[in-house]
Write a structure and sequence with these properties.
With 299 residues, the protein is of the alpha/beta class. It contains eleven helices and 14 strands. It has helices spanning 14-26, 29-36, 40-54, 70-88, 108-112, 115-125, 138-146, 188-194, 208-216, 230-238, 284-296; strands spanning 3-7, 10-13, 59-62, 65-68, 100-106, 129-135, 152-156, 166-174, 176-181, 197-200, 223-227, 244-247, 259-263, 271-278. It has a five-stranded mixed β-sheet, sandwiched between helices. Strands 12-9-13 form a three-stranded antiparallel β-sheet, with helices on one face. A two-stranded antiparallel sheet has the order 1-2. The longest helix has 19 residues, at 70-88.
Length: 299
């Protein structure tokens, strides 16, 4: 149990802050209690103790939901930092800096592609490290990293300039490919005009690359459905439900054995995969090792 600061003559405990943050992230006291492995009453008491010490409300409760007040939202970044700093105290005497939990966000194709080999090498080189893997979309992982919920994220490169608090390292570029079942023949334009298109969702960061290709070629295929799961697109194509335009991600061959895969020329259609980290980094040695291991497995 750690404590911080002195307010009104009392020490506030970081576990109280952690409980409040859980409520904010979960949207309810009951859900936060399940994550914290305590009772809802205990969570409520911790929040009330913080409110008494600070002198203002931190949550507004409506039915089963609990929402942060404006005052709570303004304090949230500092509270996350305090909780994070407290959790790192036990590793400050770690001579090589390769111990402890490392929270890594990863998109689905990274999870099924390069990450298993990366984790094997990482834990071999840093046996006292404890990687925690968080799946999600590029946008959700970007937001979690910004909020301090992650130490690193392997995502599609953001389609906007990074804030000064984050840095990006390019891991690989994935060329666009057209996938069809093995019975289909013809050019990309012919196939797009005559077969349903299983579309990589253009509203997600990676989906902008095939959308750019279609716009440049003035192709308007009939969309069967939108998906952000590339593995699912490949499986639907293999079953003969349509055709797809996807990046050639690491491990794509496991999902396209029953498909014909044709390259789409043009570097502007390549999906860029990056490692995002915060500035400054809480675990610089572990993150440097993670970057090195990722680089070993991105070819």
């Amino acid at each position: 149990m750690y404590s911080f600061g002195v307010m009104k003559g009392k020490l506030l405990e970081t576990r109280y802050l952690k409980s409040l943050i859980s409520v904010v992230d979960c949207g309810s006291i009951a859900d936060a209690a399940r994550i914290e492995y305590v009772t809802a009453a205990a969570i409520g008491q911790r929040v009330q103790a913080l409110e008494r010490e600070l002198g203002f409300a931190l949550l507004t409760r409506t039915g089963y939901t609990a929402m942060p007040t404006e005052a709570c939202l303004s304090l949230l970044p500092r509270m996350r930092r305090l909780v994070s700093d407290a959790s790192l105290l036990q590793y400050d005497t770690d001579l090589d800096g390769l111990s402890g939990t490392l929270r890594i966000g990863a998109i689905s194709t990274v999870l099924t592609g390069m990450l298993p080999r990366v984790l094997k090498e990482l834990t071999s080189k840093a046996p006292n490290a404890r990687p925690t893997i968080v799946p999600g979309s590029s946008l959700s992982l970007f937001e979690s990293l910004q909020a301090g919920k992650l130490d690193a994220a392997v995502v599609v490169a953001p389609p906007f300039p990074l804030p000064k608090t984050l840095r990006a390292s390019t891991l690989r570029r994935e060329p666009l490919v057209l996938i069809t079942d093995k019975t289909k023949r013809g050019s990309a334009a012919e196939l797009m005009a005559t077969h349903p298109y299983i579309r990589y969702d253009p509203n997600v960061w990676g989906g902008r690359y095939p959308a750019s290709f279609l716009a440049d070629k003035k192709l308007e295929p009939t969309v069967l459905c939108d998906l952000d799961a590339l593995e699912a697109i490949a499986m639907l194509v293999a079953d003969g439900l349509g055709i797809g335009l996807v990046p050639e991600w690491t491990g794509i061959e496991r999902f396209t054995n029953e498909c014909r895969v044709r390259p789409i020329p043009g570097s502007r259609y390549e999906r860029e995969i990056v490692l995002l980290t915060r500035i400054p980094e809480d675990r610089p040695n572990l993150l440097a090792l993670l970057a090195q291991v990722l680089d070993n497995h991105t070819t």
